[in-house]
Amino acid sequence: MKVSNSLNVLNRNVSCGIKFDAKEEREDKSSLTTDVFVDVVHRWFQLISSRSTILALSKFNMAVYRETIEFLQEFIKLFLNLKVAPDKSGKAVWRPIQTGVL
Predict the structure, then answer these.
(1) Are 45 and 58 contained in the same domain?
(2) Looking at residue 73, what is its pLDDT?
């Protein structure tokens, strides 16, 4: 998958659009989980690809550093428990995307 294509889908604008649609247009709020997932993956990508000291993992500001470490630990938990696509028997299996992200 090309990174530029992924960034077009997994970004804050898409997350906001999903949230707006769920709140304004739909009775079913299940798309809010997609909104949260897109937002979390976007934040993770911003962190791992950042070259500036403001956004990158830096001990310059310890409060931000601890918050970022907490976020990354929660992100790891999310992807460890993620059920991407079950096999034919319905059992959850580990997928290559989980290995690539972690």
Answers:
(1) no
(2) 94
CB-based contacts of 92, cutoff 8 Å, min separation 6? 83, 86
How far are the Cα atoms of 46, 52, 67 from residue 42, in angstroms, in the given order? 6, 17, 16
Does this model's pTM top 0.90?
no
- Residue 20, CA atoms < 13 Å, CB-side half-sphere: 6
DSSP three-state, residue 67: helix
Query: Number of folded domains in the chain?
Result: 2
Residues of the domain holding 28 = 1-49
Q: Is 35 exposed, middle or buried (0-12, 13-18, 19+ CB in 10 A)?
A: buried
Q: pLDDT per residue over 23-58, tens digit each?
A: 776 666 677 777 788 888 888 888 888 777 666 677
